[in-house]
Amino acid sequence: MSETNFTDNNAIIFAKADKFKNRFYQFRDERLLPPKRAMAALVFTRFADLRMTHQRLNTILDKMEQLFNTGQFVKAGALIEELRISESMFAEPETLADLASVYFLMPGEDPFEYSREWATKKKELWNQDSDAKAFFLHRAYMQTSLYSANSSLNLTEYFNGISQVLKRFNRFDIGSTKNTTLDRLTSSMSPPES
């Protein structure tokens, strides 16, 4: 299979082009996902179901541990409340973008591997095209257990409505010292070729 052209592979089909004419492809059936992509999808699905990024979760847990160890129980309680607020959300956009980066491919990307660099490239493009972003987030949302409970949810309207809640979470994105499952999974993955 050619890494730059998916047209001669029956397992991969065209999904969407963004406003910059970047073409995105997907596997005809998600059961055809290669093992390394499937593993990344499992990790990202777990965080999408938690409605929290792996970095944010580990950062909050690190901070809670620090607060408990120094006897600052009221402040630690506030962080527990942040976790509860997260659980009450229908979805979290960053985790869905991570999940979409597994399922959707660009020409030049190796379909058998998952690459953080390619994921970043795709997410940056989607952030510049709101229609493409809505499409890819919704498609990723359909892969989660959240979808079966809220299949009629309009994600674009929802994310616009909860933007203040999501901004509250950003104050904890100071980086975690924990080596997460995702870090171990993707640490050896190669960057995209130019």
Beta percentage is 5-15%
* Largest sheet strand order: 1-2-3
Number of helices: 10
- Main sheet overview: 3 strands, antiparallel
* Total of domains: 1
Can you describe what's shown?
- By secondary structure, this protein is mainly alpha-helical.
- The protein has one domain.
- The chain is 56% helix and 7% strand.
- The chain contains ten helices and three strands; from the N terminus they run ββααααβαααααα.
- It has helices at residues 35-50, 54-69, 73-88, 93-103, 116-127, 130-141, 145-149, 155-161, 163-170, 181-186, and strands at residues 12-17, 23-27, 104-105.
- It has a three-stranded antiparallel beta sheet.
- A hairpin with a 5-residue loop joins strand 1 and strand 2 (23-27).
- Helix 4 (93-103) packs across helix 5 (116-127), helix 4 packs across helix 6 (130-141) and helix 5 (116-127) packs across helix 6 (130-141).
- The chain is elongated, with a radius of gyration of 18 Å.
- The chain starts with 11 loop residues before the first strand and ends in an 8-residue tail after the last helix.
- Mean pLDDT is 77; it is low at 172-194.
